[in-house]
């Protein structure tokens, strides 16, 4: 049968495609656990320099598969600890950039996943809905943490309370995504963007992500100390030598060595 996560590695870009298109890629446990495992494997694979998460068909991810909830032998708390929380933590902790390529509607935990990318690329026809309150649940999978940091407490609360649909143009203005690409060239535009990122110094980007993630919950003093530690790690790496050498020789730096 069709895999719930399709994987494709091309030019150092690993694309993980949520693949339950008939349900707008609503998430069941198999999808969530497989996605998390694929991400963890990608972290250890030198050939992967950038990871893209996207959806098959017209949706990105419609959140929890509501057909899968009743009769489940786990509490909500247990289920979040088992599936969604490890996924979001894995994305945040991954030593490589994770792009969420939001090709269509992102709802509920699918919206949380869309927001969890290090860089978020949207198709013109994509949209995001904090849909949880429609079924009288609370936003999870990190939405309560991420969204207010992007749009402030009040706008976040309004989006959550009314389950308003945010379309691409507004998402860009609100800082929910970095770029919007036309629908008909979206997959190619995402691949081209990801390949550009894959040519950047992977080790320095890993440390940059680590420092930024830590700084989001630290004081300025802690961030300054952390920078001083990680700058040493960056400066001791061959990428730094290559970057400076290329600058002096007035040639492009070559950060990809395998
Ligand atoms: O631990 C826990 O379980 C708690 C965790 C919670 C995390 C969550 O994500 S809670 C939120 C769950 N998601 C939703 O409530 C979203 C439900 N879906 C929708 O509101 C709408 O489908 C959308 C707004 C996302 C898209 O609307 P539209 O009109 O573009 O498409 P549609 O016709 O509603 O959906 C197309 C098909 O996908 C349809 O199936 P059908 O009728 O063609 O056979 C629909 O039932 C199915 N589908 C969409 N979302 C889900 C789904 N099937 C199961 N679960 C879904 N979430």
UniProtKB/TrEMBL annotation:
It comes from the Bacteria. Keywords: Isomerase. GO terms for molecular function: isomerase activity. Pfam families: ECH_1. The keyword Isomerase applies. SUPFAM superfamilies: ClpP/crotonase (SSF52096). Belongs to the enoyl-CoA hydratase/isomerase family. This is 2-(1,2-epoxy-1,2-dihydrophenyl)acetyl-CoA isomerase. It comes from Deinococcus arcticus. The lineage of its organism: Bacteria, Thermotogati, Deinococcota, Deinococci, Deinococcales.
């Amino acid at each position: 049968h069709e895999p719930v996560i399709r994987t494709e590695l091309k030019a150092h870009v690993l694309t993980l495609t949520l693949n339950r298109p008939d349900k707008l890629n609503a998430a069941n446990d198999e999808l969530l656990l497989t996605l998390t495992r694929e991400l963890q494997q990608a972290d250890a694979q030198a050939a992967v320099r950038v990871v893209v998460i996207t959806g098959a068909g017209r949706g990105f991810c419609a959140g929890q598969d509501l057909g899968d909830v009743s009769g489940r032998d786990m509490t909500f708390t247990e289920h979040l600890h088992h599936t969604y929380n490890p996924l979001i933590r894995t994305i945040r902790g991954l030593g490589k950039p994770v792009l969420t390529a939001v090709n269509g509607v992102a709802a509920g935990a699918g919206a949380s996943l869309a927001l969890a990318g290090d860089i978020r690329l949207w198709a013109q026809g994509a949209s995001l809905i904090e849909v949880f309150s429609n079924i009288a649940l609370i936003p999870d999978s990190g939405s309560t943490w991420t969204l207010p940091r992007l749009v402030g407490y009040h706008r976040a609360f309004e989006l959550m309370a009314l389950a308003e649909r945010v379309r691409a143009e507004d998402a860009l203005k609100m800082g929910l995504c970095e770029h919007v690409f036309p629908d008909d060239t979206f997959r190619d535009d995402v691949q081209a963007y990801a390949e550009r990122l894959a040519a950047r110094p992977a080790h320095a980007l890993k440390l940059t992500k680590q420092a930024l993630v830590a700084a989001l919950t630290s004081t300025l003093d802690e961030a300054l100390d952390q920078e001083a530690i990680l700058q040493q790690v960056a400066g001791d790496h061959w990428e730094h030598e290559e970057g400076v050498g290329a600058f002096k020789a007035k040639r492009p730096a070559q950060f990809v060595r395998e």
